[in-house]
Write a structure and sequence with these properties.
This protein has 17 helices and twelve strands. It has 480 residues and is of the alpha/beta class. The strands form two sheets. Strands 1, 2, 3, 6, 7, 8, 9, 10, 11 and 12 form a ten-stranded mixed β-sheet that branches. The protein has a two-stranded antiparallel sheet with strand order 4-5. Helix 2 links the parallel strand 1 and strand 2. It is globular. The two termini are 25 Å apart.
Length: 480
């Protein structure tokens, strides 16, 4: 599910967003016919006993050795894992390296014991509600620094480094203390989603202000339809709405205040106060879909697909995750977060960047093959394989064959990205400070259930920020 580092302070790097939008335009052939979705010190070949190291060459810069095996673990969530199986088949065909494949949602349950025993997989898609937090793995010295992979020649143009083939800013959320230790592979946007059919049937227009959204919720309630559904058991999702409202109301400074652990990040922030009061108004007026607070992500999303709610918060993996539950004429659409009065960012501004972190454990048994596998993930061939299987875009510039046709929801995210231009943003505290992120989610959960009021939410979130700020290691992460 899936920011930027200190040197690319606005998500994907504001001045580079036009390039990104152009790249998306080349990728986005409208139509139908695909799918969609929803740690770390150094490490080197020293952990390899020599049996997995072959002869390096121009086409095989890490010396991945024919006849060895690669242990691959993939989060089988919104994007499924068929794309990884397609990669593994190609890897076997071209390099003679076979893979042990595990697709699971139980990343922590299956992998924490392996990390603890010093026997981790070779490459992992570390995502989902049960992911192992990258910052924790990093502090434990369990992640490979990916510099060698990023500085290797790209598959498509050996004269170009891998890092120079990527959409600007997309490496940033995988950084810890200035090192890239996770490769966030999928280009993701976050926001609200709705059914084009439901809107057409009711004569509703896309809301551009929060008041417009509340008016639709009121109309929906009068018809017995929930205004907003959220994935109550996973408050990560409602924080998409809350944090988007903060960033759009207060601008990038309000967002960076949270990432930089400002003593007024929440308490004393006008943007944070207005945002949480706006969300709480939805709760107070009874516009939440009944029962949504007690549902998992897929349960809430399925009821939304059944027209039991107008809006739901999510990232762009939603469409693929709900393929089987979505009626053929549902017409899934993405919506940037509507504006509060006096917002500093425009309606078109969206949270965007890279998601779905792939990691290589420092103690992987087949490091040469793991590095080569990741290098090939960033080729046009494998990027296109991913798009065909998962109906989503990758962080590779112009990385998907123009013949790939995206489903309606994903197509609408491409159009939203174009409309946003350089108005994108992305929080980093979720990657840098997982404990703080969990505390903020817990406060949001209490608020949505009416167990606390906005003032208490602000206090709890500020307390989480202040606690994190006392950790000396926090000073190594900063956004300018």
């Amino acid at each position: 599910m899936g920011s930027t580092a200190h040197h690319e302070v606005e998500g994907v790097g504001r001045r580079d967003l036009i390039k990104r939008s152009t790249a998306l335009g080349l990728v986005a052939v409208p139509g139908m016919g695909l799918l969609s979705a929803c740690a770390s010190g150094g490490g080197s070949d020293e952990s390899d006993d020599g049996s997995t190291k072959g002869e390096a060459s121009k086409d095989n810069p890490f010396g991945a050795k024919k006849g060895t095996k690669l242990d691959v673990v993939v989060f089988k969530g919104g994007y499924g894992d068929d794309y990884a199986k397609a990669w593994e088949a190609d890897f076997s065909k071209k390099l003679g390296i076979t893979s042990t494949h595990t697709g699971t949602q139980e990343i922590t349950g299956k992998l924490q014991p392996r990390f603890n025993a010093g026997n981790p997989p070779d490459i992992v898609d570390d995502s989902g509600a049960q992911k192992i937090n990258v910052d924790v793995l990093y502090r434990n010295g369990q992640l490979l620094d990916l510099t060698e992979v990023l500085d290797a020649p790209s598959v498509d143009d050996p004269a170009t480094k891998v890092r120079d083939t990527l959409i600007p800013g997309t490496l940033d959320p995988g950084m810890q203390e200035g090192k890239v230790v996770a490769l966030n592979y999928i280009y993701t946007v976050w926001g609200l989603w709705y059914s084009g059919k439901l809107f057409e049937d009711n004569g509703w227009q896309e809301p551009k202000t929060w008041d417009d959204l509340l008016a639709i919720c009121k109309d929906a309630k009068s018809q017995g339809i929930g205004g907003l559904a959220h994935q109550g058991k996973y408050p990560y999702y409602i924080n998409v709405a809350i944090m988007d409202l903060i960033a759009k109301k207060g601008g990038l400074d309000a967002m960076k205040a949270i990432d930089n652990l400002d003593p007024k990040a929440f308490v004393g922030s006008e943007a944070a106060q207005e945002a949480i009061e706006a969300i709480y108004e939805v709760v107070e007026k009874g516009y939440l879909m009944p029962g949504t607070n007690g549902l998992t992500h897929t349960e809430s999303q399925t009821r939304w697909n059944q027209y039991k709610a107008v809006f739901i918060t999510s990232g762009s993996w939603l469409e693929n995750e709900q393929l089987k539950q979505t009626p053929p004429d549902f017409d899934m659409k993405f919506l940037p977060m509507p504006l509060l009065p006096g917002s500093k960012l425009p309606f078109e501004a969206i949270r965007a960047g890279s998601g779905e972190p792939f990691i290589i454990p420092a103690k992987a048994k087949n490091l040469p093959a793991a590095k080569e596998f990741m290098r090939r993930m960033l080729s046009k061939e494998w990027s296109t394989l991913f798009a065909k299987q998962a109906n989503s875009l990758t962080i590779l510039k112009d990385g998907v064959d123009p013949g790939v046709r995206l489903r309606p929801g994903t197509q609408s995210t491409v159009e939203a990205s174009k409309a946003a231009g350089d108005n994108t943003f992305r929080y980093l505290y979720t990657e840098w400070y997982s404990e703080m992120g969990t505390a903020i989610e817990a406060a949001s959960n209490e608020l949505m259930a009416k167990r606390i009021q906005p003032k208490e939410w602000l206090k709890r979130c500020q307390a989480a920020v202040d606690k994190q700020a006392k950790d000396p290691a926090s000073k190594k992460n900063h956004r300018d």
